[in-house]
Amino acid sequence: MGLEERRKRERDNRRNAILKAARKLFFERGFKPVTVDSIAKKAELSKGSIYLYFNSKEEIYTQILLGDIDKFHEHFSDLLTDSPSASEALLRFAGIYVDLFLSDRELFRILMTFMLHTSDMNLPEELNSHIIKATNRNISIVEDIFRYGIERGEFPAAVNLRLNRNAIWGLLNGIISLHLFTGGESKRAEVIQSTLRLGLDIYIRGLKTCDRPR
Amino acid sequence: MGLEERRKRERDNRRNAILKAARKLFFERGFKPVTVDSIAKKAELSKGSIYLYFNSKEEIYTQILLGDIDKFHEHFSDLLTDSPSASEALLRFAGIYVDLFLSDRELFRILMTFMLHTSDMNLPEELNSHIIKATNRNISIVEDIFRYGIERGEFPAAVNLRLNRNAIWGLLNGIISLHLFTGGESKRAEVIQSTLRLGLDIYIRGLKTCDRPR
DNA sequence: TGAACAGCGGTCATTATATGACTGCTGGTC
DNA sequence: GACCAGCAGTCATATAATGACCGCTGTTCA
To answer: Which residues in chain B have their CB less than 8 angstroms from residue A5's CB?
Structure first.
């Protein structure tokens, strides 16, 4: 404890207050409708002060995203060691993935939107690559599952890790997007889950019967 | 919650941090040996900032005192209604008074010192009168006890409230001072308590036999 | 179709707050 | 009584916060 520490602490606190306020607003209303003034008001600061801590509205948004992506990753840390097979791991992964997004409603929309608009919101390169890296870390969980499957002879050795990883990732997000967009609220969770289960079952069955690279 | 509120909150917090730090130091070392720099360091502020919140070292000291005096008063709120007689109330008052000071060692010394040196430490008039008033509120508890005694016929109607109040207050502080100054630590509490009990018993007996104003 | 305007992100001159080197006083030492 | 150490309190400088303002963009309406 000392003078310098106190000042750092207070800077951090203020920064966090901004993130917390912004998070709430972004999750309530999305990106565009949230004004910097409204963030400032909720954080009990002036707009000018916001810009002492962040360079742009996009950067705030992105920082929030980064935190969420990291938190996201934690949910899957024990997945491989806990699952009896790669197929099972994949199904579990999908289950958790969907639950996560259904419990934190806006998160999915936000992450997807970011994927779709990264290049628009010209962020500092540093930050941009950080996000990409964090996202890749999550995507690569799927790759790990496939690798695990190959190692234990569950999937053919010829399976292309990257391609299949991307396919599954796309499958997941595509199905979720579709059902968030269409279908009613009431049975959404079950519908998505069962759709995914079906899709994955088939995909896995297909994979197992591969004999040449794909 | 809003911007103005937040700023007030933060100002209050900082002010309290100073008081808290100063209190600890004053109670550890007394008044003189505590430098403003040491308060600043403990409060994780610069010396200059201290003077943004207080006008002098004395004022800090005094503010702490004010808080303590107020807290002090709370201990006696139910005294009269809980006691079967004025004599008993007086004895209880003395008992609590002594216990309080023995449990919070430096407080007594500090309060006494203040009484002795108020005029030296030229405080803002406002503050000074506030302290006097707070102190009087405590002293007047004794007066209340006497008044109660007269009302229920326990003491003669002719008893002079103010004079006797001051006498008792002096008796209390004098005896405590004496024993803090001389006598050993070990049996101090009992010695003080029994001395006071004796003194008060005699005083009360004397009072009851009065028949002309005194 | 283009003039007027509203609403926003971002800027910056002004204001508020914090800092610590400095000053002058005081009490102690030799 | 000359020196000095140590302190309360000051103030020029540095840091942080503020909100009026600017320019751009998308919308309304004659």
So the answer is: 44
Closest residue to C11 (CA to C1') is: A48
User: Within an 8 Å CB–CB cutoff, is residue A24 touching chain B?
Assistant: no
Contact A119, A53 (CB under 8 A): no
Give yes or no for a contact between B150 and B159, defined as CB atoms under 8 angstroms apart: yes
Domain membership flag for residue A213: no
Could you tell me the residue range of the domain that residue A112 belongs to?
56-208
> What's the length of chain A?
214
pLDDT in the model for residue B2: 86
Let me know whether B79 and B115 are in one domain: yes
| Average predicted confidence (pLDDT) for chain B | 85
Nearest to A65 by CA among A100, A112, A97: A112
Identify all chain B residues contacting A41, using CB atoms and an 8 Å cutoff. Answer: 2-3
**D strand bases under 7 Å from protein CB:** 6-12, 16-20
Q: How far is CA A73 from CA A27, A100, A211, in A?
A: 20, 11, 32
Nucleotide nearest residue B50, measured CA to C1' = C18
Domain termination residue (choose one: B14, B38, B54): B54
pLDDT in tens, B32-42: 888 999 999 99
* pLDDT tens track for A59-69: 898 888 888 88
Q: Looking at the 3D structure of chain A, how many domains does it have?
A: 2
Question: Cβ contact (<8 Å) for A45 and B2?
Answer: no
Which residues of chain A have a CB within 8 Å of the CB of B3? Answer: 41, 44-46
Domain boundary among B38, B54, B70: B54
ipTM of model: 0.67
Residue B123 burial class via C-beta count within 10 angstroms: exposed 0-12, middle 13-18, buried 19 and up: buried
Which residues of B, range 44-73, sit inside 8 Å of A by Cβ? 44-46
- Taking 80 as the threshold, does the pLDDT of residue A50 lie above it? yes
- pLDDT digits 0-9 by tens, B78-128: 888 888 999 999 999 999 988 888 877 667 777 776 776 665 555 666 667
